[in-house]
Amino acid sequence: MGNSTVRAGDRTGAPATARGTGLAAFSVAFAFWITMAGTTAPTPLYPLYGDEFGFTPFTVTVIFAVYALGVVLGLLVFGRLSDQIGRRPVLVAATLLSVMAAVVFLLAQNVTAMIVARIISGFSAALITGAATASLAERLGQHSRVKPATIALFANMGGLACGTLLAGILADLAPSPLRTPWVAMLALAAIAAVGVLLNDESSAHRSGFSLQFQPLHIPGEIRSDFLRSAMAAGAGFAVLGVLTAVTGLFLGTVLHESSHSLTGLVVFAAFACTALGQLLVRTLKPGTALPAACLGLIVAAVLIATAMATSTLTPLFAGAIVNGLATGIAVGHGISGITTRSAPQHRGASVSTFFAILYSMLAVPAIGVGILIRETSLRPAGETFSAVVAALSLGVLLSLVRTGREAA
Question: What is the pTM of this model?
Answer without folding.
Answer: 0.87
